[in-house]
Amino acid sequence: MIAVFKINNKHSVLTAHKLLARYMLSVAWQLSIFVAVGLFLFQPGPLFSQTIGPTSIAEESLADFSSQDSGLVLEPQEAQNLLEKGAFHLALRLANQVLEQGGTPLAHAGWIKVKAGALIALDRKAQALSTLEAAPSHLYENHPTLWLLLGESYLDSGDFTKARDSYSQFMIRHPGHKELFRAQLGMGLAALAAGDISEAELLLNIYAQEGDQSRVEPLLIIALAKLAQLKGDTESINSYMTQLADLKLSDRELYSRPRIEALALWHSQNRRWQIAFSLLEKGLQINPSTKFRSFYQKFVQRWLLVYHAKKRGADNTTLGAVRNLIRGGLPLQKREEALDLLLERELAKPIGLFQDAGLLSTGPFLARPIDPNLRLLLAKAHLHLKNGNEAWILLNRLPGKRALRLRLQLFAADLQPKYVDLINQLQQPMPMDEDILKEVVATMFAFTKNRQLAPAAQLRMVLSTLSKQTKVRRALQYQQAMEKDLTGESNSALTLYLELASDIGRDGTDRDADSLLPMSPYQAAAEILISQKALKEANELQKLQ
């Protein structure tokens, strides 16, 4: 028997049937209890920050596919086996495929269980709850463990009364079920989350002594440590957390969100910040989820405020880069270097810094005022990562040429389809310096290439005021040739390209005059000739450039 269970031998042991009788007679738990255990992350001296819920597994990517065969021969239990092995998206896809085909609800009961289990594993608890609530009540008799999934979903949503009721329904209806102790653990977690400390202590200690002895449950250890914290028992806290750290589990269980968050908070309480962040970042790499990223960004903000906000000197760690990027008053070059370092590390070992709820996503930053330089830097990073909407939000109403250049780059990269505001801004009187000019021309060509001819024509109008410049005039003719080629007038396009090519070397026109073009007019003309099977002619042109 491991230490966590030995510690609780002083408590009286109740059998599962006594526990059941106790709850059938009691009405205390039926009252609406909504006083949750406070979030301790931002208060002095806490250990745990969130309602303790079922283990959260990472979101994973799976290429989209569709079956041409309407008959799926896979059985629900086979999909359940895939789910238990970690194929969460695949299991969800299979369940949706069957459920969308229609048929009798009874035949689909097993698939509803698979779907709900996959959604819970993917940290999509609200969708899991909707799926379970929509299931007909008689399905719960054929698949009683649906009560357990429903209890976990209510627990995660914060409805502790309904969570207890779901677990209780399972215990009352199926007192001899092999997973009875799972409901007992759920009852204890719900009581703890609702702030019913005495009930939580009783239930959790019963589970510790009579539960599934074949497996050490991390959620139980976390809950017992929380109880020890509420009683001010520091020695027991350290004992539980040491045991939690030493558990032998698979990587997914080892780096599950509840376990890693609990350990990170414990280490931070003891000022072991580097250990805490190392655990968090490894957890985000293995089990990424929106909730996990949200916890990480709050944890970093706490670290900045409480411990390392005033640290000086060189620091090339991820945390040092975050500090240098976020803090105002540093030279812009220093902040750019910090952003480059974060981008490099995110591409090598992603932890979701720039994803939804990530530390450097628009949500956390736009929740409070940030200086224009930081907005620009973050927009640049999101542009690099092709997060067009995030970059556009950061650039919204931001004045200045640097912001305008980034907006133009968004359009040139086809990452932002809304161009009306941009055209209006360009049409206002303003100096068109070399950098802005390059971006405007590149955007015009990008619109043309993507057959967005209306905004391309509007940018032609903007540039026509500068047509006295040779390179602008040639860019406008090149764009006209591109447009004709795209609309089927390839011979007219060829003529325009050849005119541009023949002008080089005459009237002082040199190759520098084509610095704004996406490729030389020689090559553009050659490509049309190649498409017309005029290979010898194309070869001659290519030799001239």
What is the compact description of this entry?
The protein has 545 residues and is mostly helical. It contains 30 helices and no strands.
Give keywords.
mainly alpha; 30 helices; 63% helix; elongated; disordered N terminus
Description:
This protein has 545 residues and is mainly alpha-helical. It is built from 30 helices and no strands. The protein has helices spanning 3-6, 16-25, 76-84, 88-99, 109-121, 125-134, 139-142, 145-157, 160-173, 180-193, 197-210, 218-230, 234-245, 251-254, 257-269, 273-286, 290-306, 318-326, 332-348, 362-366, 372-384, 388-395, 401-412, 420-427, 434-449, 453-464, 470-486, 490-503, 521-531, 535-544. Helix 25 runs parallel beside helix 27 (470-486). The radius of gyration is 31 Å and the shape is elongated. It starts with a helix and ends with a helix.
Please write out the topology.
Layout lengths: L2 H4 L9 H10 L50 H9 L3 H12 L9 H13 L3 H10 L4 H4 L2 H13 L2 H14 L6 H14 L3 H14 L7 H13 L3 H12 L5 H4 L2 H13 L3 H14 L3 H17 L11 H9 L5 H17 L13 H5 L5 H13 L3 H8 L5 H12 L7 H8 L6 H16 L3 H12 L5 H17 L3 H14 L17 H11 L3 H10 L1
Helix pairs in contact: 3-4, 3-5, 4-5, 5-6, 5-8, 6-8, 8-9, 8-10, 9-10, 10-11, 11-12, 12-13, 13-15, 15-16, 16-17, 18-19, 19-21, 21-22, 21-23, 22-23, 23-25, 24-26, 25-26, 25-27, 26-27, 27-28, 28-29, 29-30
Number of helices: 30
Major sheet, described briefly? none
Rg over C-alpha atoms, rounded to the nearest angstrom: 31 Å
Terminal Cα separation, in Å?
81 Å
Low-confidence stretches: 1-71
Structural class designation: mainly alpha
Q: What is the string of SSEs from the N terminus onward?
A: HHHHHHHHHHHHHHHHHHHHHHHHHHHHHH
| Helix proportion range | 55-70%
Please tell me what the overall shape is. Answer: elongated
What fraction strand? under 5%
Count the E strands. 0
Summed over residues and divided by their number, the pLDDT gives a mean of: 75
